[in-house]
Mismatch-specific DNA-glycosylase
Amino acid sequence: MVAGGLSVLFCGINPGLMSAATGHHFARPGNRFWPVLHLSGFTPRQLLPSEQEELLDYGLGITNVVARASARADELTDEEYREGGRILVSKVERLRPSWLAVVGVTAYRTAFGERKARIGPQERTIGETRIWALPNPSGLNAHWTLQTMAEEFARLREASRIP
């Protein structure tokens, strides 16, 4: 779900099995993406995965690094991440969002060969598009709480100048 001229293009790692079955990003009930997106101020209410098209109304889009569905992201190979990174660069060059927000710093590191990348804004750009690595909202990423993730997402919202 992408379009040209977005303020932020969020990029998940890959579809989970539920997302692949429903066609909705971050569809597993325990995933914290949708609550965090709302708590951080990107959306005025918490959207359901089935309402993902509404992101476009807020200047937001969503895609993945790797297209292949899996039960867990650790089932993906480094080559899948690197190839996904190349495809993502082409997509960003075509769509030119202000920000690419990769949801999962490990995915960002592998896809872009940035082994020392940390959560937050990155030095690398894709044309005029700035990049921000965000924490993975999966329930498996327990050391990030809902609140601390919302704070990091809000930093991106403020940097992207979304009211």
